[in-house]
Design a protein that fits this description.
Elements lengths: L9 E3 L2 E2 L12 H11 L13 E2 L15 E4 L12 H13 L4 E6 L2 H16 L6 E6 L8 H5 L7 E5 L9 H5 L5 E5 L11 H13 L3 E6 L30
Parallel strand pairs: 1-4, 4-5, 5-6, 6-7, 7-8, 8-9
Antiparallel strand pairs: 2-3
Helix pairs in contact: 2-3
């Protein structure tokens, strides 16, 4: 369905449900939205939000979308959750390969499982990582930055980090300089329990990205009342909505 997430155009959820793995998950919107969808009898949300469901009936949806778009895969789950079978992950990738007109953005907090799937199953089936599948991981604090070292094992043409919710200053220099990262997304946390984001943390990531000629996207400033996104996500008098492959950015 069309997305209000600023860095994508569409969401596609062949998997629903997830579980928390680190502090960035504490106030995840999925856990708040899931019960509402269940109360509305939306298919795919009949169980508890921490019950992972694979939904093969949703697999072929992107093939019906004629207009090329950026598609966020599993905004309501994690494709590489341990409860998602490797064969189903392969089926998802097969659709992404067939729907080559779209760019698919896969974001995980479990990059080790992504690398394991590719090395043990995906590579033998697909040969090469699909060019239209971008692969990212979430890093909310420096403690979890080593996820990026694992992400480098995934041979995607575009690898990205989602530093949202950004909970402290991050130094991504090693992964920007060694070519691991091609895109940096940053954002504060929103909602009634939002933890504050210091604008200097966003400035640091913007400047680190610029030094490495890597695209930087400031998604939102966060806050308990209004998330200050889109044209309101202003940092030093400008919005930052860079996308890999545009404006000479790698």
């Amino acid at each position: 369905m069309p997305s209000t997430i600023e860095w994508t155009d569409e969401t596609w959820n062949p998997v629903t449900g997830c579980s928390r793995v680190s502090p960035g998950c504490d106030n995840c919107y999925m856990f708040a939205l899931y019960p509402r969808l269940r109360a509305m009898d939306v298919p795919g949300y009949e169980t508890a939000p921490d019950s992972v469901q694979m939904l093969p009936e949703r697999l072929r949806a992107p093939l019906s979308w004629r207009r090329p778009r950026r598609v966020f895969v599993n905004s309501m789950s994690d494709l590489f959750h341990p409860h998602v079978e490797y064969d189903f992950i392969s089926d998802v990738f097969a659709v992404m390969v067939e729907a080559h007109q779209h760019v698919f953005q896969v974001l995980t907090k479990r990059p080790g499982r992504a690398a394991g799937w590719w090395q043990g199953h995906g590579q033998s089936r697909f040969g090469e990582w699909p060019e239209n599948v971008w692969m990212g991981t979430s890093v909310e604090s420096q403690k979890y930055a080593p996820r990026l070292t694992v992400l480098r094992r995934v041979p995607a043409a575009v690898r990205f980090v989602s530093a949202e919710p950004l909970l402290e200053r991050l130094d991504l220099t090693p992964w920007l300089e060694d070519g691991t990262l091609h895109w940096v997304i940053a954002g504060g946390e929103s909602g009634p329990r939002a933890r504050p984001m210091d604008l200097n943390w966003a400035r640091d990531l913007r400047d680190q990205s610029a030094k490495a000629n890597v695209a930087f996207f400031l998604k939102q400033l966060g806050g308990r009342r209004g998330k200050h996104s889109g044209p309101d996500a202003v940092l030093d008098g400008a919005t930052w909505v860079e996308i890999p492959g545009r404006n000479g950015l790698r």
